[in-house]
């Protein structure tokens, strides 16, 4: 484990000064400060001046939210078990909940924008979630291609809920139009997910 990773591990237990970290690591304080500045530049560590009793305030370093997220998380495991349990009781209820999640995600992405947005804007909003989406025109209408699945592990086990469901409904909520179709899907072995959108009626 390199020094920066060790520093992140120590800060996981709470904020510390460069001096305290140097003592725990057994290296010079100047070297620790150099690593801390590098970690701040990466957005993993932040610092603040804290007054601890009398004397000058001390600079303490702590993890940012991005720093905390560097450590193992098991969101996908818990989420998969949750979906499995809901499906076991009632598949239609699981779909109902997924539709509700899609609606809430769309509201969060749209913010103060006036819904619906056009497809190009929808692709940009999907990118803010990490979908790596792009917009294109096809002979069957417009399409949104997504090169990254943000719920890949869950999608592989529950494609009907995540791919045909959540992802598709999210696009519909963003553009205010039903009839979006999932034409290609990474959960079924395709390289990307492709949703096509038919031209508006009338």
Question: What's a quick, concise take on this entry?
Answer:
With 202 residues, this protein is an alpha+beta fold. The chain has helices at residues 3-11, 18-25, 29-41, 65-68, 75-89, 91-110, 119-127, 152-157, 159-175; strands at 45-50, 58-63, 133-138, 141-146, 181-184, 193-197.
Task: Note down, in words, how this protein is organized.
The protein is α+β, with helices and mostly antiparallel strands and 202 residues long. It folds into 2 domains: 3-68, Arc Repressor Mutant, subunit A (Orthogonal Bundle), CATH 1.10.10.10; 75-197, Trafficking protein particle complex subunit 3 (Muramoyl-pentapeptide Carboxypeptidase, domain 2, 2-Layer Sandwich). The chain is built from 9 helices and 6 strands. The chain has helices at 3-11, 18-25, 29-41, 65-68, 75-89, 91-110, 119-127, 152-157, 159-175; strands at 45-50, 58-63, 133-138, 141-146, 181-184, 193-197. The strands form 2 sheets. The chain has a 4-stranded antiparallel sheet with strand order 3-4-6-5, with helices on one face. Strands 1-2 form a two-stranded antiparallel ribbon. The protein is elongated and about 70 Å long. The mean pLDDT is 90.
């Amino acid at each position: 484990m390199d020094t920066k990773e060790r520093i992140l591990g120590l800060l996981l237990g709470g904020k510390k000064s460069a001096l305290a970290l140097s003592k725990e690591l057994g290296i010079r304080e100047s070297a620790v400060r150099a690593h801390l500045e590098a970690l701040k530049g990466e957005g993993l560590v932040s610092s603040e001046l804290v007054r601890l009793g009398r004397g000058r305030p001390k600079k303490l370093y702590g993890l940012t939210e991005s720093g905390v997220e560097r450590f193992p998380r098991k969101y996908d495991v818990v989420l998969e078990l949750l979906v499995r349990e809901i499906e076991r009781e009632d598949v239609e209820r699981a779909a109902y909940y997924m539709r509700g999640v899609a609606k809430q995600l769309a509201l969060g992405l749209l913010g103060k924008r006036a819904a619906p947005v056009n497809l190009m804007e929808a692709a940009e909003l999907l990118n803010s979630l990490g979908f790596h989406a792009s917009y294109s025109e096809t002979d069957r209408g417009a399409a949104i291609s997504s090169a990254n699945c943000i719920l890949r592990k869950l999608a592989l086990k529950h494609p009907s809920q995540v791919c045909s469901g959540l992802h598709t409904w999210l696009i519909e909520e963003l553009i205010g139009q039903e009839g979006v179709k999932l034409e290609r899907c990474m959960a079924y072995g395709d390289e990307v997910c492709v949703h096509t959108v038919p031209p508006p009626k009338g």
